[in-house]
Each structure stands twice: as structure tokens, then as C-alpha cells.
Specification:
The chain is α/β, with parallel strands linked by helices and 445 residues long. It is 31% helix and 27% strand. Helix 1 packs parallel to helix 7, helix 1 packs parallel to helix 10 and helix 4 packs across helix 10.
Length: 445
């Protein structure tokens, strides 16, 4: 079969790799000049199977209301004159109960476990280097109430086979001494030794090179103009080269036996153009990458700071800190007041938790912080859409939210298996598929 993959992030490239593994001819299209230059570029770097918790829970609506006027809020809703945003929010509210939370956790953990195994297989097969650290992930808390609530989350995760455990402050500081300077304000935490971290951009770009070596064709610098539909089947994809920042009028027509939409937050509008309506909405996430001043004092264990809902990961001689979600459309600016406040939060918090470890100076002060923002393609359940649409030849692999790096390898493998007529062995409800012996249906997002 010839398969056209639209999108060259971690999801699209993983899909391409696993299709090649199964003998498919593959064409990958992306508007950027290389792989992983949008949402996969500078994420939190965590492979966090044990922290795959949906945003929607019974406390989320009240927290969202409380945070609406806080520029540094972990989840900030910026209301738009956009029906898609409001529809997404209503569907999200429907998931804010304990029954839905546990059901969604089960699906997300199943995909995370499957994906982590798939990632390890790819690394063994390719030898890709990407600042990988297999030191686990620690989650630390600064108040007793949050730590008590974490105990319930640990029970839920362990119920589904995740070996996440509660640890005391002393044990957490023994696991990662780098947090000792902040230790007096830590009440305790959780730790999962099987999780890991690494640079998603490096991994994705190198995997793309391996795909090219195996015969995949890459059309970088090409816009997807439209999906051409004949009857109830996608006949072809119209693409056009981008030159000097503008799409050239001359376009090409790509034909294939299967078309995979893996365009992150931009998947929803492309799919709607041919009658496939999936609730995927962009969540603007932020990160900062700081040079290390004292590498010997920097953490090796990737960590989550519950107080500010930030993740931090060591990547060679830099530290990546990422977090916060902003629901406000497709705005990617870093120079408005909200964006500046959220970037400042990242640098200020690192100085509080790891004083003097990183160079957090602003450019005006002589520093070189690398601030970045990307759009997380979120579904109301946080369960991605993977599988066949009701339109012939059209497949989707999108909606991974903040877990694209965690779920990437497995999502690509699962979709490649489905396209090849096989059944992935995990308890996950795939789009457009009847539940098999290893599946449970996903309740509509």
C-alpha cells in the first residue's frame, strides 16, 4: 500500500516508521523545512506513563473559574468568539466526574504502557541518541492537602498496573538531591522509576532520517491545501510548495491507498472540510530551555512541580522546564502580556526550586533563555483519536494533548497495525473499529 502521512511531528513520523516496518510505501508532507518543528519541538521531554492524568476531573471546573483572571494559572481559559471552543468546553465539563476520570485514565494508561514498549523497540532497532535519561519521574508537593489527594491518584494508577508510589520528603530528596535547597517546602511526593525523559525533537528528527533511508519520500515545505473527496472516499491530497513564506499557486496532487491526518491541532479543521467532526482544540503550552551553570547540581530525575504544575527535565547541558495550558485559539505569540507573564513564571520558579543552577537571565541581562510555545491538540477526555474515519481511505492520529511524546511511538505503531489489517494488543477504543478482545470502547469525547 501507498500511505500519505500529513504531519511530521512525533505522531506522524512514528506512524511513517511503523508503516515502513510493515512494507508500506510512505510519503510524508509537512509545511516546515524539517520534522518536529512545531508541537514536538520543545515540550516537557517526559515519557510519563505514570502521570497520564486527564485534565477533566471533578475539581477542574471550579479551578478553571478561579484561574480565569490569573495570567500564571496552570489552566487558563481565554474565551473567544469561537463556537468550537465553547463546544469543546461543554464536552470537557461532561467529563468532570469521578466515573469519567477513571474510565479515561484506564484508556490513557493502556496507550502509555503500549507506547513506552514501542519506543524502547524503536530505540533498540535504530540506536537513536536523544539525551535519554532512564531515571524515573518524581512529583513533589508543597502542601499536605495536595499530597493527600495524590494518594488517591496513586491508587488509581496502581489499579491499572502503573508502579507509582508515595514517598516522604526525605526519600524524595534521596532519590533526587538536587531539590534539597527547596526541601523545607516539600511535604512529600510520588515517584515512578520506570518513567524516563529525553528530547522529543532530536528523537523525531533522527527517526525521520531513518525513514528517509528506508525509502520514505518527504515533502517538507509543503502546505496541505485540501483533501479531495469523491463520493465518500478521499481521492487525493492537494499540496503546494511554500517559497519565501508564501504558498506557491502551482500545486501537486498526491494519491495513495490511505491518507493519515496527523497535523496536531490543525487536524480538526482539515477533517471537518470532508465531513469528519472531531473535538480537538489547541491548548497553548509554554517551555523554557536554560543553560546549566552548575551541571553537578542539576537534577537527573525528571520532575513535576505540583505547586505550579510545571515539568522539568535535564537534556544534556540544558534544563527544560515546561507547563501551563492556555485555551485561547491558535495564537502562538510570545510577546503579549499573558505570554510574558507565563514565561517569567518559568524562570522565576526554577530559581526558587533550583537556585543558581541555571542561567535564567533575560537577554537584557546578558542571558539567553530559549522560550517557546506550542499548540497541544487536546480532546475533552485527553484520549487521542487513532483509527479509521467514516470517509474512505482517511485515517487519523491526533488529539494527544500534552502526551504526544509519551504516546507517540505507540500511536504510530497502533495506527500502522490497523492500516495493515492487524489488531493492536491493548485495551483502547480505536476510532472506527469495533471493540475486539483487547479493546474497550471510548465514550464519545
Amino acid at each position: 500500500m501507498k500511505t500519505i502521512v500529513l504531519g511530521a511531528g512525533i505522531i506522524g513520523i512514528s506512524t511513517a516508521w511503523h508503516l515502513l516496518e510493515r512494507g508500506h510505501e510512505v510519503v510524508v508532507v509537512d509545511r516546515q523545512p524539517d520534522a518536529a518543528l512545531e508541537t514536538s519541538f520543545a515540550n516537557a521531554a517526559q515519557i510519563s506513563v505514570s502521570y497520564c492524568e486527564p485534565w477533566a476531573n471533578r475539581a477542574a471546573p471550579w479551578k478553571a473559574l478561579k484561574w480565569m483572571f490569573d495570567k500564571e494559572a496552570p489552566l487558563l481559559l481565554r474565551p473567544q468568539l469561537d463556537w468550537e471552543q465553547w463546544r469543546w468546553c461543554l464536552k470537557f465539563l461532561a467529563q468532570c466526574n469521578d466515573t469519567a476520570f477513571e474510565r479515561n485514565v484506564q484508556q490513557i494508561v493502556a496507550l502509555g504502557t503500549y507506547s513506552h514498549a514501542a519506543l524502547k523497540d524503536v530505540v533498540r532497532a535504530t540506536g537513536i541518541q536523544y539525551h535519554r535519561l532512564e531515571c524515573g519521574i518524581a512529583h513533589f508537593y508543597s502542601d499536605q492537602k495536595s499530597l493527600d489527594e495524590a494518594g488517591h491518584a496513586v491508587e488509581v494508577m496502581r489499579k491499572f498496573g502503573v508502579q507509582r508510589r508515595l514517598v516522604s520528603r526525605a526519600e524524595l530528596l534521596q532519590i533526587e538531591p538536587a531539590f534539597s535547597a527547596y526541601g523545607e517546602r516539600i511535604t512529600g511526593g510520588t515517584y515512578t522509576s520506570t518513567d524516563e525523559s529525553g528530547d522529543a525533537r532530536l528523537f523525531t528528527q533522527q527517526l525521520a532520517r531513518h525513514c528517509a533511508e528506508r525509502g520514505a519520500q518527504f515533502l517538507y515545505g509543503h502546505d496541505v491545501l485540501r483533501l479531495n473527496k469523491t463520493g465518500n472516499t478521499i481521492d487525493s491530497v492537494a499540496v503546494s510548495a511554500i517559497q519565501s513564506g508564501a504558498t506557491v499557486q502551482k500545486h501537486s496532487i498526491l494519491k495513495g491507498d490511505a491518507i493519515v491526518v496527523a497535523c496536531g491541532s490543525y487536524s480538526a479543521s482539515l477533517l471537518r472540510s470532508v465531513g469528519v467532526d472531531l473535538p480537538i482544540y489547541p491548548g497553548k503550552g509554554y517551555s523554557a530551555t536554560f543553560p546549566l551553570l552548575r551541571p553537578e547540581a542539576a537534577p537527573l530525575v525528571s520532575a513535576i512541580d505540583d505547586g505550579k504544575k510545571l515539568a522539568m527535565s535535564r537534556l544534556g547541558d540544558v534544563l527544560r522546564v515546561a507547563g501551563t495550558i492556555e485555551l485561547g485559539g491558535f495564537d502562538l505569540s510570545l510577546d503579549n502580556p499573558v505570554a510574558k507573564a507565563r514565561c517569567h513564571l518559568l524562570s522565576r520558579r526554577i530559581e526558587e526550586v533550583l537556585p543558581g543552577v541555571c542561567d535564567t537571565r533575560t537577554p537584557e541581562q546578558g542571558g539567553n533563555p530559549q522560550y517557546w510555545t506550542g499548540l497541544r491538540p487536546a480532546t475533552p477526555t485527553n484520549i487521542p483519536f487513532i483509527g479509521r474515519t467514516r470517509v474512505g481511505k482517511l485515517w487519523v492520529n491526533a488529539g494527544h494533548g500534552t502526551l504526544g511524546w509519551t504516546h507517540g511511538a505507540g500511536s504510530g505503531k497502533a495506527l500502522a497495525e490497523l492500516i495493515s489489517g492487524a489488531q493492536p494488543a491493548m485495551a483502547f477504543g480505536f476510532l472506527g473499529a469495533e471493540p475486539g478482545p483487547h479493546q474497550r470502547p471510548v465514550v464519545a469525547a
